[in-house]
């Protein structure tokens, strides 16, 4: 039986870039979302502990399925094996990663009086 595929999902969340690994990714029935299931994290027994991976483990602890907006997705890769999940800060004005403005988000303007 062939090995189950592993996906690296990179997405933006609240001014940070999350890089996680999962075994299942689907286009959601909820329009505009990607479903990510079966998150993969390193074992807690590792000697070197990456604080951002621990933060992600806690963030997704008990989560069966996560719905990520398509506009937040930066990249999805099918990889040979899982790696270390991590969080990267997005430097202000870096120009490398920018999110689309969302209505209702701080600083967004969607008509009406100022």
What does this structure look like?
It is a single chain. The protein has about 110 residues and is mostly beta strands. It has one domain. The chain is about 10% helix and about 40% strand. The protein contains one helix and six strands, in the order E-E-E-H-E-E-E. It has one helix at about 50-60; strands spanning about 5-15, 15-25, 35-40, 65-70, 75-80, 85-90. Strands 1, 2, 3, 4, 5 and 6 form a six-stranded antiparallel sheet that branches. A hairpin with a 5-residue loop joins strand 2 (about 15-25) and strand 3. The longest helix is centred in the middle third of the chain and has 9 residues, at about 50-60. The chain is globular, with a radius of gyration of 16 Å. The chain starts with 5 loop residues before the first strand and ends in a 25-residue tail after the last strand. The model has no long low-confidence stretch (mean pLDDT about 80).
Q: Which helices and strands appear, and what pairs or packs with what?
A:
Blueprint: E1 6-13, E2 16-27, E3 33-40, H1 51-59, E4 65-69, E5 73-79, E6 86-89
